[in-house]
Amino acid sequence: MEMFRRTYADINLENLIFNWNQIKKIAADDRFICPMIKANAYGHGDVQIGKTLEKEGANVLGVCLIEEGLLLRASGIKTDILVFRGFDKRGAEKIMEYQLTPVVSSWQQIQHLEAVADEPMKIHLKFNTGMSRLGFAPSEAEKLRQYFSNSKKLKLKAVLTHFTSGEDAASALGQSARQTQVFSQVFDYFKDMDVYAHLLNTGGIVGLAQLQSGPQIENPNKLLLQQKWGFRPGLMLYGYTGNELQGPAEFRAVMSLKSVVNNMRRLEVGDSVSYGSTWVAQRPSYIAVVPIGYADGIHRLVSNRGYALLNGERVPIVGRVCMDFLMLDATDVVEKTTPEQWVEEEVILFGYDDKNNFLSATEQALHTNTIVWETLTSVGERVPRHFRGLKKT
Ligand SMILES: Cc1ncc(COP(=O)(O)O)c(C=O)c1O
């Protein structure tokens, strides 16, 4: 569709590949790595992200919904696709038809698959070790092992669980350590069945990298080092490691959310900005009007709190964010220039500008009392994704 406003998400696939290679370095061996590209690849565009990762050697991709898996298949992606959410009988039929690999969390799902499978089907088995969301109770491990030892149709490939607090994965004293203990006991039941195990999300991978890099952790979670459990990286693929964490190696933001100055207004002392007049000029001011708003995923909570980059400088968001616009106090940048020259000038809501100045999506998340996962996945459907470094198929 032709676009008439210059607001878009600039998706840098070279940065994605860089992050993918950083993750593979931490894996350091032939560990299972399932890049998570659910929720439209955390807002980045699942088809292009999936195709790029497939080309870079990923032999499995993780999605939540069957619908997401079908979209990837329709785009020509051939690699294994792991579907995490669960399914009913109709879903089981689609999984079979499109050769998706289901993550199984209940006996009922096993029955659905047995009913539709007309040839041997690979499955992964999920255990609940603390999330209390999906997965079998660990106490079912022995029964499940017996079941899958005998099933002719369902081929158990892997067992998995999910960290509730991956950020404490390096320590023997946290919730992750309790989960790794339980999961290790579960995995023991399946050891003679040629199955592998996976659980490390971004927090877990950061924790493992900390353990690998030396003895600085006082109470290390040794199980995490000893077991070659697989990775399921989501956030770090897209360049972030979470609100509280510093990355173990450099990661590069894949998405830069960009717009332009629509018009520049001169305000006198006492003039106000936007709904509710929550910001009032205390000095003669220049206000940049930017055509991006909460309908595009800029949360209204950044009103009078967040920043954007204009000409490489941080400028505050002033007044309430509107559905389609927000306003910046650009006075310090504009003073001593002609205001008109700023119209159509690029504005960065997060990510990099063309001179590599950076504003973190984590910072925008903190200003809105949320996490960077939500900031990225909130970028709206009406924001077009422009892909840099897209290779021809
Ligand atoms: C089952 C599962 N594995 C892995 C991930 C990836 O987590 P992260 O984005 O923290 O790497 C998620 C994300 O929510 C998930 O639900």
UniProtKB/TrEMBL annotation:
Alanine racemase C-terminal domain residues: 254-388
Pathway given in the UniProt record: Amino-acid biosynthesis; D-alanine biosynthesis; D-alanine from L-alanine: step 1/1
Binding, substrate: R133, M323
Catalytic residues of the enzyme: K38, Y275
Catalytic activity entry: L-alanine = D-alanine
CDD domains per UniProt: PLPDE_III_AR (cd00430)
Gene Ontology cellular component annotations, sorted alphabetically: cytosol
Cofactor: pyridoxal 5'-phosphate
GO molecular function: alanine racemase activity; pyridoxal phosphate binding
Any Pfam family: Ala_racemase_C
GO terms for biological process, alphabetical: D-alanine biosynthetic process
Modification N6-(pyridoxal phosphate)lysine, positions: K38
Enzyme Commission (EC) number: 5.1.1.1
Enzyme class, first EC level, given as a word: isomerase
Key words of the record: Isomerase, Pyridoxal phosphate
PANTHER family linked to this entry: ALANINE RACEMASE, ALANINE RACEMASE, CATABOLIC-RELATED
Purpose of the protein: Catalyzes the interconversion of L-alanine and D-alanine. May also act on other amino acids.
Family statement: Belongs to the alanine racemase family.
Protein name: Alanine racemase
Species per Swiss-Prot/TrEMBL record: Pseudobdellovibrio exovorus JSS
Organism phylogeny: Bacteria, Pseudomonadati, Bdellovibrionota, Bdellovibrionia, Bdellovibrionales
